[in-house]
Amino acid sequence: MTTAEASLLAKAAQLDIAASVPAALNGYAKNKDGLIGSMSDLLMIIPEAEMLEDSSYTTAPPVTNMIFCSNGDVYAHTVPIGRASGSSGNLNQCHNFYSKAANVDPKTGLFTRLNYCFFSTDTPRTLWSQRFAADPAGAFLPLASSLNPADIKFCPLISDFSSATIAADKFRGIGLFYDSTYGVVTGHYHNANVKDKYGRKASTLGIDYRTSYNYFECAFYNNVKNCLVVIQDGNVWELYSNGWVSPGVPTFGTDAQAQTWVDAQPDMFLVPFLSMTGDTLYSPMRSDTDGPNKAKSSTENSYDTLAGNMQARSRPSQAAGSSTTTGSSPVGHLCSIWGTVDPHVNYGTSSGYAVSQQYLWDVATRKLAPVYRESFYEVVPGQLRDYNATVTTLSYWTAIKQRTVLTNLVTKEKLAEAQQLLQVREEGSSRGVITAGIPYYNPFDGVWYQAQAAYVGDAYYTGVCRLESFADSLKKYMGP
Prior knowledge:
By secondary structure, the protein is mainly beta. Helices cover 10% and strands 38% of the residues. The chain is built from five helices and 27 strands. Strands 3, 4, 5, 6, 7, 8, 9, 17, 18, 19, 20, 21, 22 and 23 form a 14-stranded mixed beta sheet that branches. Strands 1, 2, 24, 25, 26 and 27 form a six-stranded antiparallel beta sheet that branches. Strands 14-13-12-11-15 form a five-stranded antiparallel beta sheet, with no helix packed on it. It is globular, with a radius of gyration of 22 Å.
């Protein structure tokens, strides 16, 4: 077998996860018509144990990237829901960087807000100690020092503009955030049209993402050097915890040459930098080995993470007194990589691709592993009628079953599988969980997390909650 043939077979094996998804989804939906099959994997919210909770002006939950560490530590980056003028703001207008130490209770221990960056429309950063920036994208990743590879820190990263004017010549590129040594300097960014080891490409490279605040950019994470890597105008740059370094790789004349170099790296994959989300989310990465690397359009947005994905499923279309009901799509599918599976095969017309990502960090080997996450939603038959006098229509409490499966992209092994029952209705002063993202799972302590948005009283609330098994939840109420 030639070297080229061996390389091709290795790449094909890495893409097996995409090919296996349709068959796997048939298994996830095996308990149809609202049946949960077994309560052994049923999840319940842990009361008063939110990672964060905030009032909001939108029904979108906080997009959150999470890293679970083998030593028990947890790191999280929540992305701004909105942008505003000035140099300070509330939680849902900031990039927030959180951690939870291994020595606190995994189910109820508090998260520490390590740092934040306000998403300002008109105030650019001029000093390293300013916790605001002009239309920033952000990430939170483990980076080694270029001077000491064993010295690894979880670093808040930022990509912003040097002016309130959003333009390519004002784009500052990626850099370290809140770092006195690095300061506020011009960084680098990725613009090579290349795939990573999992067949994924940056979904925004078909457009110039330096000219808009709501497009998400990508860079590579090098698992051998524990650094960020970009290919900018044919030149390779590496970002460490102490700044940018040129590794001295000869300049590439074409994207094909850049792809050959990427394929030769033993362990390197794409990671997203996320910007303000609002109600329109764009998947940062796409799994498309053949199609053009075009930008996501408004018709290809992440439908199921838009505001009200639960509420939309509960929506009745009958007026008071009517005897029939026709609602929106009763089923849906949501996954963490755009283009992994045809959303219209066997699952109706509702599908989407999540923006949030999950990683596992092995402290001993210093390796970061991406996790593929997906949820299958189904309305439980039998809506409960409730007359709502304020809108003179019938409002329905609807139960929605959400089954979630997570797969370690490195090992191709199923990491976890669980299900939830969520209640929501279309009208009224309290409507339950109106938006629910794909849950995260920490295999090192068994705790689940989920970003949600709820309508309580007459106000929206967003947050990231923790979940546990139904059996563990029931123990609290059983008594001695």
